[in-house]
Design brief:
The chain contains 5 helices and no strands. The protein has helices at residues 2-16, 32-55, 63-90, 97-118, 129-132.
Length: 140
């Protein structure tokens, strides 16, 4: 019986050592949402900047360019919302996290629409099997 009683304090100590540690925030981040939003916006910015060279030669009324410009507008709105949110945190004022989350959802949807506008439906590729694999014949 003494062994059983001596066993339980060891179990409790072991469980106490397994407590969940919160993630470490980078300097300048006030909370996990602030840090994740910053990361999301930097990723979106890099994605849109990489896509700029592909979209530049397209005419203004091309569906891909229209979707790209909508994604840029959504990024600008999300960035402005995040800057206001972060500034409120810096100044110790109430910050509207829900507005930033809504802007990020709109950005995500706009980038998804841009990505979808770049792909052709399978029916459009019928009879052109090389296009299904991204091959372009006669392009230097």
């Amino acid at each position: 019986m003494k062994r059983v009683r001596a066993f339980w304090p060891l179990v409790l100590l072991a469980l106490a050592g397994c407590a969940h540690n919160p993630p470490v925030l980078r300097p300048g981040a006030f909370n996990a949402f602030d840090q994740n939003t910053h990361d999301t916006l930097r990723t979106a910015q890099a994605t849109l900047e990489a896509a700029a060279k592909d979209v530049a030669p397209l005419p203004v009324n091309h569906p891909v360019k229209i979707a790209y410009n909508a994604a840029i507008d959504a990024y600008n709105a999300a960035e402005a919302g995040y800057q206001a949110y972060h500034a409120a945190l810096v100044n110790g004022q109430p910050a509207d996290q829900a507005a930033v989350a809504a802007a990020l959802q709109a950005l995500n949807a706009a980038v998804a629409r841009y990505a979808a506008s770049k792909t052709k439906p399978a029916a459009a590729l019928k009879g052109q099997p090389w296009l299904q694999y991204g091959l372009r014949l006669g392009v230097a």
